[in-house]
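INFO  loader      accepted 1 record
INFO  loader      residues=264
INFO  predictor   begin
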Amino acid sequence: MSKIEIDGVIAEYQQAGDGPNLLLLHSLLTDMSVFDRVLPKLRERFRVTRLNLPGYGQSQPRPLASVADYADHLNSVFDKLHLPPETHVFGNGFGAFAALVFAIRHGARFSRLLLADVVAAFPEPARVPFRLMSEKVSSGGMSTVLDAAIARMFPPAFQTAHPDEVALRKAALARFDAASFSRACLALAALDTTAQLRQIRNPTLIMCGALDLTTPPALAQALAQGIPGAQYREIAGSGHCPMVEQPALLTTCIEDFLLAPPSL
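INFO  predictor   done
INFO  writer      dumping tokens
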């Protein structure tokens, strides 16, 4: 693992492989280790950068209050790592929200945009769980939301079939910085990108697990329809975490999109 300093705060990252640059951004409920199953294949064709967002892994917390703040953090990461404008960006969950706003605010900094399990804005009933998780974590720490977080991450059948993976993810969750997690929950509850989607000029692929109840396919499709020229792919047999649940399918989707010739 390597580290850079952004505004006096350490950010942890890892780079592997050779080829076009590809930045991977994890979700609210995971860290960069969630890409372990897709990294071996991706690094055969890409120079892959995995980043831990503030408060995750060895990345120190930053007082980021909005998803736009995270997008600006990514802009600083591009500066520090000297990532060229040909770099592609993939995000899952919260990482996808950050990448989406990064495209709105700093789209000229990178090339293609790939988002898995993301929506333009949560309906009001879906914002409530984020506020509740923020309150619980603020008062009682990460241990208060572990079971609820796992339920949002994986469908019941996957949890039953893969108890070791569930235990691994739960252990990682317990180590996250509670204040950073709480702020990120509130940032998601407040976000609405609907009116800004047409500003995105990056070639875009939106993906969604067919079993995802956190960011359902219908809302992910609506997001794709709001971005000029965006493509949509559904990932069969996956919930909110395709890197773990369906790594081969996800890798195929990524490679098909990034290795296709640009549209005329």
